[in-house]
Every structure is written in structure tokens, then in C-alpha cells.
Amino acid sequence: MSRLGLIIQREYMWRVCKKSFLLLTFLLPFLFVAMMYVPFWLASIRSDEIRHIVILDETGKYADLFDDTDSYRFLHGDKSLEAYRADDNREIFAFLSITADLLQHPDAAKLYSEKQIPNDLSATVNRVLTKRIEEDKLDSFQIPNLKQIIEDSRISFNIQTIKWGKDGSAISSSTPIAQLVGIFSTFVIYMFIMMYGAMVMQGVIEEKTSRIVEIMVSSVKPFELMMGKIIGIGLVGLTQIFLWGILVGALLVAGELFLPVFQPNTEVTMMPEGVAMAADTTIPEWFVTLQSFNLIEIICYFILYFLGGYLLYASVFAAIGSAVNSPEDTHQFMAPITILLLFSAYIGIYSVENPDGSAAFWCSLIPFTSSVVMMMRLPFEIALWQKLLSVTLLFASAIGLTCFAAKIYRVGILMYGKKTNLKEILKWISFR
């Protein structure tokens, strides 16, 4: 095996076999899925306690409108509010006081309680009273059959979006899901570039401060050492992404079977014009909509942009690590890189509303931002030439920047005890 291969193998196996890597790889998918499903599961658990709500209606128009629910029992009050408060009856949770016609005096209804009023109770009271006030308002117009006319005129319309396939097929699509896929891909690319790029820099600093690198460069070239570290850690990142994808996918499918969150379960049926639609049975509608996206293409470009973006930034991180003497000295060099990546993420997220806009287009071609921004645009079927041009520019820039970083690395890795500045680092590039 070549010396470069040995370095890659060492970096890869040493990091993959660490307990922290195994714990993060297998625990994080469970935490991610738990954050999605546990809140819905907890929200579905209701207390067996039934709270009593006393209605004090001086008008006599509203008390009979309230029906008991699983959580609340509405009672007609026979005493004044002051008398109830004097009794200090702990079985009564809240008092609904209505002192006048709400159509004429909307502020005549108040809900009293010694504890914070739950949202579901406020929503129930508002819904019941609003319906009655609307009916009273319609009656005040004295138009025959006005209620029925309004009911008949209410129409709920939701346009269906259809995506044509190259083979002439048609399937239901969804812009929100396309946006979600883009945002998720953008976030993962950003997170992994920062995390594994910083890992490269930390590894270089550790080897430099421990003087191990002096022994290593006696057997291998500095360029081989840098590339071995970058490639090895990059393979660690791909391994983790692959395992996370499998685990998260399996957990989401399992969670959908036991606790559907996204949509009611549906099956695919074919409409007369060949459009895949959803009807009642087993396949989640969001899963059917995903079929309208070229997931294989998105995954392939995801890998390319991850590799290109990681190689671009990891080489910069390696150069920074070789030029400093301690982690504390990296802050002045890290700030521009962090700002640039945050700017890329900002442009990517805000490109979701206009993926073909000027900002999204140009930032998806600029190598330092394309790996993040382009992932937001891919679900929206952009032109092939834009994707090919973006990937070409990204990898060409990554290779060129790696060569410059290698010149900095070979000088800085053996330089100790001296504070370096940007001017001096630029001089190292001209050394032969």
C-alpha cells in the first residue's frame, strides 16, 4: 500500500473506531426522530382530570351553547362571581362571566381562573361565542335565508400541483416538500463542512504541538500527509452520513407506522389522466409526493457537493492549522471562513422562495458558496448546464486551493514558537 493510502487508512480507522464516533453516529438519529415524534405523542396524551367551568350568563343567551368535552365540564352558575370566590371552591377551575350582549359589547365576556388559562379552553370558548355572535350579526341584517346563502357560498379550494415525467407520466408534487428537502440538504452540507473541516484543523494542530509531525515528515511528503488527513476524515464524514441516512429512514418509516405525524395514511391510485393521487390506505402522502423528485440525482449531487465543498474548506482549515501554534490562535483566521459559510447558508435558505433568482444563481456558481446554495436549488429542477458548470468550478477551485494550501502546510507544519500573520503566510506560497 502506498504511503498516502496508509495515512488515509490510519486517519479513517482511528476516527471510526472511537467511542465518540460510534455513540454520535448511532445515537443522533434516535434523538432526531424523537424530536419529531415525541412532542406529538406527548400532545396526544390527555389527563384524566375533568375541569369544571362555571358559566355566569346574565343575558341567558350563551350558557346553553357549551357542550361538555373530554377535559371540561360546563356548569350553569346560580350565584354571583363574588359569592363563588368567597366560597373558595377548589373543584371549580374557571368562571366564564358574560354580562351583556356580545354583539353590542364584545368586551362583556371574561374568563377568570386562579391558574393560567389553557389554550384549548380559550379556543373552545372563543369558537362557541364567535359562532353565536356571527349568527346574531347575520340576523341583524334581516335578509331571508342569509345564513344558507353564506353557507352555500363557502368554497374550500386547494390547487393540485402535478409534475410531468420525461416518460409522459404525471405525479402529484409539492413545493413545501421540495423546500424541506432543499433546506435539509443545505443544513447537512453546512454542518458537515464546519464539523469535519474543524476536525482536520484540530488534527493538524495536535500533531504539530506534540511534535509527532517531525517524525512523520521524515517518511512522507508534507503534501501526502495533508491529503491523507483530508481524505481520511472526509471518508469518515461520508460513512457517518450514509449510516445516518439509513437509520433515520428506517426510524421514520417505523414511526409512521406507529405514530403518523405528517399526513393521514394513503395509497396511490391513478386518476383517469394518469395522475398519481392519494386515497385512503397505507402509503403516507408525503412519501408519494417524494416520488416526484429525482432522489437519485439529488443524492449523487449531494455527495459531489459534499466532497467538493469539504475539499475546498478542509484544505483551508489544514493550512490554518499548520500556521498556528495553538487552537486559541485560530480565531483570527476562522472568522472570515465562518462568516462566509453563514452567508452561504443564509442565501440558501432565503433562495427557497426564488430558486432561480440572481442571488441564488450566482451564489450556486461561486465555489465558496455553491456547495451550500446549490443543494437548495436542486429539488426545483434547474438546468443541467448550471449543475455541471457549478460542479466543475467547485472541484477546479478545490484542487487549485489545495495546491496553495499544501505550500502553506509544508512550511507552517515545522514552524514553532512564532506568531504568524497573513502577510507572512502569503510569502510561504512563493517558496519552492
3D structure, described in words:
- With 432 residues, the protein is an alpha/beta fold.
- Helix content is 61%, strand content 10%.
- The strands form 2 sheets. The protein has a 5-stranded mixed beta sheet with strand order 5-6-8-7-9. A 4-stranded mixed beta sheet has the order 2-1-3-4, with no helix packed on it.
- The longest helix is centred in the middle third of the chain and has 37 residues, at 222-258.
- It is elongated, with a radius of gyration of 32 Å.
User: What is the H/E order?
Assistant: HHEEHEEHHEEHHHEEEHHHHHHH
Task: Estimate what percentage of residues fall within beta strands.
Answer: 5-15%
Sheet with most strands: 5 strands, mixed
Radius of gyration: 32 Å
- Extended strand count: 9
Q: Which structural class do the helices and strands define?
A: alpha/beta
Average residue pLDDT: 80
How much helix, percentage-wise, in residues? 55-70%
Determine the number of helices (DSSP H or I, runs of at least 4 residues): 15
Alpha-carbon distance between the termini? Answer: 28 Å
User: Uncertain segments of ≥5 residues (pLDDT<50)?
Assistant: 261-283
Shape call: elongated
Strand order of the largest sheet: 5-6-8-7-9
Q: In terms of topology, how is this protein built?
A:
Blueprint (H helix, E strand, L loop, with lengths): L2 H14 L2 H26 L6 E7 L14 E5 L4 H7 L4 E7 L10 E5 L5 H23 L4 H8 L8 E3 L5 E3 L2 H35 L2 H5 L5 H37 L6 E6 L4 E6 L2 E2 H6 L4 H29 L7 H20 L7 H6 L3 H11 L6 H29 L9 H9 L2
Parallel strand pairs: 1-2, 1-3, 6-8
Antiparallel strand pairs: 3-4, 5-6, 7-8, 7-9
